[in-house]
From TrEMBL:
It comes from Selenomonas ruminantium. One of its GO terms (molecular function) is hydrolase activity. This is Acetyl esterase/lipase. Residues 98-304 form the Alpha/beta hydrolase fold-3 domain. Pfam families: Abhydrolase_3 (PF07859). The lineage of its organism: Bacteria, Bacillati, Bacillota, Negativicutes, Selenomonadales. Keywords: Hydrolase, Signal.
Length: 329
């Protein structure tokens, strides 16, 4: 396992509106990876995060309709009973595919921030096609609804002729949990694994006894105690209602991780899920998985989602690009 310490923020698991009021409904040019980002010392970064979170508590107006970048195509379609969203970048130079599972504590739906994050991942991967799974959410739909939808969507890609070895599964927060559960399901059912898993601040266990759930409760400015809706959801997950939290498909940290594909794990040192992210990397490595794990000091949960302007986020994007290029030609 390659462990590196970087200096790296945002959350797909917010109880607030995730669409910034400045988003507009016209097609903008596609995002490009900046050469550098906003560099702040720790105190300034925490103030920056706090100000962003405060602004999300008071959104201005309704979210604008999603518009794909200039020249891209965007469509929604049904894969059986699962709603899928597909982005195509005709300028991409490879047949790589992004398959994104969004965060949101299993209670928040797909949103524009996750669509924009998927755009970024597609650009970093030079992927022509990007798929987003609009899986069913709790409390109306509890386990195994989201996993069933992820499996159905993945199988639909395979049935359409997509090569699993060209699929990059990305998941943030609860989406990271779901990405791991999907990979475990594929292993158990002898189905082809994707090329890799990109796990951003993954929620790896629905159990609540790990130390960082307490010592980072006030430090995690995105998912911690200052966000009572989502903080409460982490402590008492709606998605797992009626099932034991130890279930490996709810808490992949408890699973046999051997034979899973290469995985990149990014965690912030201030986030609630810090310990379980570290433990996932250690366990996967011990069980023979090719793991790259990076800790971003002073960063809260899922940081690059809402704060892409920070140097920490830019560094995380570079790492994702390099990890993909290392493992896929």
């Amino acid at each position: 396992m390659k462990c590196r310490v970087g200096k790296f923020l945002a959350a797909g698991i917010l109880g607030f509106s995730l669409t910034l009021s400045s988003f507009t409904a016209w097609a903008a040019p596609a995002w490009t990876l900046p050469e550098s980002g906003l560099k702040l010392d720790d105190a300034a970064k925490q103030a920056h995060v706090a100000a962003m979170m405060e602004s999300l508590k008071h959104p201005k107006g309704k979210p604008a309709p999603y518009e794909a970048p200039d020249g891209w195509s965007y469509e929604t379609y049904d894969a059986g009973n699962v709603t899928m969203e597909k982005l195509v970048n005709p300028a991409a130079g490879t047949d790589r595919i992004i398959f994104h599972l969004h965060g949101g504590g299993y209670i928040l739906p797909q949103d524009n921030n996750h669509r924009q994050m998927t755009e970024k991942h597609g650009i970093l991967a030079n992927a022509r096609e990007m798929y987003l799974v609009d899986y069913r959410i709790a409390p109306q739909h509890t386990y195994p609804a989201a996993l069933e939808d992820a499996v159905a969507a993945y199988k639909d890609l395979l049935a359409s002729g997509k090569d699993a070895s060209r699929i990059i599964v990305t998941g943030d927060s609860a989406g990271g949990n779901l990405a791991l559960a999907l990979s475990l399901y594929l292993k158990e059912n002898k189905l082809p694994q994707p090329a890799m898993l990109i796990l951003i601040s993954p929620w790896t266990t629905l159990e609540t006894n790990l130390p960082s759930r307490k010592y980072n409760a006030s430090k995690d400015l995105i998912l911690g105690s200052n966000n009572p809706i989502m903080y409460g959801e982490v402590k008492n997950p709606s998605y797992g209602k009626g099932y034991k939290a130890k279930n490996p498909l709810l808490s992949p940290l408890n699973a046999d991780l051997s034979s899973l594909p290469p995985m990149l794990i990014q965690v912030g040192s201030y986030e609630l899920f810090f310990d379980e992210g570290i433990d996932l990397g250690k366990k996967a490595s011990m069980q023979g998985v090719d793991v790259t794990m990076t800790v971003y000091p002073g960063m809260s949960h899922d940081f690059a989602l809402l704060l892409p302007e920070l140097q920490d986020s830019v560094d995380s994007f570079v790492e994702i690009r390099d990890f993909i290029n290392w493992h896929m030609k």
